[in-house]
Amino acid sequence: MYKIGRCDALFQCGDVTAGFPFSGRNRPEVCGHPLLRLHCINNITSLTISNQEFYVLKINKTSNILTLARPDLLGSFCSSTFTKTTFPPEIFELSPTYKSVNVFYLCDPFLSYPSSSKCPEIGPISLSENPEYHNTCRESFTKRELNMTHLENALRGGFEVKVNIDENACQECLSSHASCGFDQTFPSGVKCGPLYPPDADDIRRRCSASFSCGDQKDLMYPFWIPGREECGHPDFKLECNASFAELSISSVKFRILEVDYGSRVIRLSRSDYISNLCPLNAVSAPFEENVIPFAPATDMLTIYYGCRTELSQSVSTYVGEISCHDDVRSYYVTRNLFPLLSGVRGLINDFKGICRRNVSIPASRPALDTLERTPTPDNLKKALEEGFELAFNEDCSLCMISGGACGYNLISSRFVCYCDGWDHTKPPLLKNSDNSN
User: A single Gene Ontology molecular function, please (predicted)?
Assistant: First the structure.
């Protein structure tokens, strides 16, 4: 069982700092509410609510008010991914000073609507505070906004939501020089525990042993499951079921296909692209490459969806067309070869403006080579299903060769090598390293 006394550390990412009731990075899950786990990628803090990722722009620790913004709504409004998100009322309270704006789209182009504008691919859109405003539009979603006149600026500025957690018990815990975490079995949800340093020998023994998850066996760093928080990187927590093991990065799920520490192979694939070239609401997921970089044989494939311009004349070895069973066109580009696309480079650079959205996906270079030689939907599916490889963390490789166990120091937010007879915060291999992996 994880010791509550290790919850005195704060979550830090960019300009955001958080303690109870949040967890994430150097704050294990037991330190915060299960719906309030923060993530940090490229110094940007994010929080997943009802399977929707939100950027956390600010946390007011006094009032427990979060300023959130949806990353998929930060660009052009017409290029947004329209989905409705529900905030669990038992913990989140939306500010009464904000309005719910219903956005209706795929509207009848022959009718006029108040507070409307036109998007290239989805036609007229209409804004209304009434969710039953009209039935001549086929789709809608709800968005809380501050300013209907400057919708895009309001979306970038975000909105406020209050976290309803009674912190009185936590304050009492802190005043007694103890540490507070979260436990749903306690009446207040707050569990109070003494402060003490981690047991280095216990951590080393735990992290030296491998574990199983789904169909994967003998797993170790950077992966972890509850109870092994100090044995893996915070961003590589696994979700296990009977068939496979997955991890979530920026609310995007990746499936583990293969892990072999002897041959130094870690192979993943995007779960939503297995047997599906056109998943709904797909977004790019930035990988934290300073933790585990891509292997040399991994490249990026970009798929552009909902393109309003006919580009079939530009289909070539490196540009292909795919069908998503709708009236608009979609294309893929093996973008590592952009310098060779002299004939269509200008057009490729304008893809983001021509197409409604794009998703960049890591893929195997050999699989992409096959796709370029034989550009078929089956080869595109195979390139996505075969996944991509990650390179091994070099510090971890040195640690394992020396007989140590790889892990993560939740206090210093750094990679650490747990070695027999050494303080785990100052491993012999890495004690002078500035590497924050």
Answer: polysaccharide binding
Q: What is the DSSP letter of 392?
A: P
Q: What is the mean pLDDT of residues 167-182?
A: 67
236, 247 Cβ separation under 8 angstroms: yes
Average pLDDT of the residues of the chain: 76
Q: Contact 252/235 with Cβ under 8 angstroms?
A: no
Q: How far is it, in rounded angstroms, from Cα 428 to Cα 20?
A: 33
If DSSP codes are grouped into helix, strand and coil, which group holds residue 338?
helix
Beta strands in 25-91 (DSSP E): 38-41, 44-49, 52-60, 65-69
Pick from 30-39, 257-266, 312-321: least confident: 312-321
Q: What angle do CA 141, 144, 149 make, to 5 degrees?
A: 100
Q: Position 57: which residue type?
A: L
Which of 434 and 150 is assigned the larger pLDDT? 150
User: 134-148, 277-291, 386-400: which range is least confident on average?
Assistant: 134-148
**Its pTM surpasses 0.70:** no
31 neighbors 20 (Cβ within 8 angstroms): yes
Closest CA to 182 of 30, 327, 55: 30
Whole-angstrom distance, CA of residue 130 vs CA of residue 266: 50
Specify the amino acid at residue 153: N
50's CB contacts (< 8 A; 6+ apart) are 85, 86, 87, 88
